[in-house]
UniProtKB/TrEMBL annotation:
Belongs to the ComF/GntX family. The lineage of its organism: Bacteria, Bacillati, Bacillota, Bacilli, Bacillales. Residues 137-227 form the Phosphoribosyltransferase domain. This is ComF family protein. It comes from the Bacteria. CDD domains: PRTases_typeI. It comes from Ectobacillus antri. Transmembrane segments: none annotated. Gene3D superfamilies: 3.40.50.2020.
Amino acid sequence: MNCLICFDELQVGDTWFSFLLPTYTKAVCAHCDQTLQRIQGVLCMCCGRMQATSSSESEVMCEDCRTWRRLADPLRCNRSLYIYNDEMKRHMNRFKFRGDVAIATAFGPELRALFWHSFRDYTPVPIPLSAERLKERGFNQSEVLADLLQVPFQPLLARRHTEKQSKKSKWERMNTENPFFLSNEVVRGKKYVLIDDIYTTGVTLRQAASILCKYGAVEVAALTLCRG
Ligand SMILES: [Zn+2]
Ligand SMILES: [Zn+2]
């Protein structure tokens, strides 16, 4: 077996975990594993960002999320696995822009574990790409991640092609035209969890969540691989 990130042969010490828990096979060598910065400790109860607090308080909310809440936040919460550090940027670059879909499978076991821990009664909904972007890239990275959960997901959303609006603040962007629209029926009263690669400002996920809420979802959360 080889490491899914650097392709070096895995040493016995790297895979001991798999003898104990066959469903949690380590697919990454010890060196690559060290480059993954896991999100842990005290988190913002809403967006899942790590909080610099030594208190043992379990209900902490970051400044950003307090503002979202005042604006009637459609997103219940977000949980991410890893910090979007330089190494993760390189991994994501290989995955998204060079089409190395195999690297994503390295994150499968932990992504599944987080799904079962936090979102077991939610139906996964991958964030779609616009038709233009899908043609250019050849695959949707969010669908690849949703596939890794090994539970049926629902492609409920589609997306219009829009230009990047980086000059606007996130609060302003929330009020611009929503690029998402419904492509399949939302089941009324159901809980959905949006799947995406990165939580950056949270605007994209909130725009998608607002559509699902509008059409009857009782609750919408997000599960993302990385936190910017
Ligand atoms: Zn490696
Ligand atoms: Zn927050």
